[in-house]
């Protein structure tokens, strides 16, 4: 007597990176020191280079604990010291020396470097309103053009992906950079749609050739921050 053939089950697909793809955890640096008019930041190639604030060092420790078991093969930082300072706890846990990727440094804010962007944002400067209305950093006098910024970010991500096929890497970078990466990945019409990643947050991108896939944005669960 024949038995009924077992019914085939078709489960929902679970994502896995394509062969040769690179998983990139983009970590925004921890909170940096506050800007003070009578104590300007040091500059590196014309860009403000503040240390981490005490809160930022706590962010760095929490990031290190969160990512310590994520099979990360390489770490990258920028030329601005708040990124290697944020990477330091994870680097110590993994026994890895971070490599410097200069092109993932923050957008250059021209005449508004050295804390002036923070001040003018707080004061409600009319150019800040124009910046958000037009979705362009280069309305700020002397700022890097959007074309230059977007081009160097895309080139840098492409280089890191090409150097790390089938690997996971962590990139310690800046809020403007993360916003630009995810705007490009999603082809967002609003260029600032992903601006505002929190200090110490982790975002996750998968790069397979020219295809950039968004996996998560602004994960702060390790920071124990409520929604807000």
Automatic annotation (TrEMBL):
Keyword Isomerase included in the entry's annotation: yes
Name of the protein in its database record: Phosphoglycerate mutase
Top-rank taxon, per record: Bacteria
EC number(s) given by UniProt: 5.4.2.12
GO MF terms held by the record: phosphoglycerate mutase activity
Originating species: Amycolatopsis roodepoortensis
Enzyme class name: isomerase
Keywords: Isomerase
Region Disordered, annotated ranges: 1-20
CDD domains: HP_PGM_like
């Amino acid at each position: 007597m024949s038995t009924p053939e077992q019914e085939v089950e078709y489960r929902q697909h679970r994502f896995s990176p394509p062969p040769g793809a690179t998983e990139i955890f983009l970590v925004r640096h921890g909170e940096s020191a506050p800007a003070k008019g009578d104590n300007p930041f040091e500059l590196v190639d014309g860009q403000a280079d503040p240390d981490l604030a005490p809160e930022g060092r706590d962010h760095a420790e929490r990031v290190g604990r969160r990512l310590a078991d994520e099979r990360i093969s390489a770490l990258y930082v920028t030329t601005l010291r708040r990124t290697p300072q944020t990477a330091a706890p994870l680097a110590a846990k993994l026994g890895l020396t971070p490599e410097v990727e200069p092109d993932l440094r923050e957008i250059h804010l021209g005449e508004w470097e050295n804390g002036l962007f923070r001040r003018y944002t707080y004061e409600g400067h009319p150019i800040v309103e124009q910046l958000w209305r037009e979705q362009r950093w280069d309305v700020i006098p002397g700022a890097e053009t959007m074309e230059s910024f977007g081009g160097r970010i895309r080139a840098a991500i492409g280089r890191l992906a090409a150097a790390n096929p089938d690997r996971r890497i962590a990139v310690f970078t800046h809020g403007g950079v993360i916003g630009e990466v995810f705007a490009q990945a999603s082809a967002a019409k609003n260029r600032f749609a992903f601006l505002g990643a929190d200090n110490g947050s982790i975002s996750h991108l998968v790069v397979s050739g020219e295809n950039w896939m968004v996996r998560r944005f602004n994960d702060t669960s390790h920071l124990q921050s409520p929604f807000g």
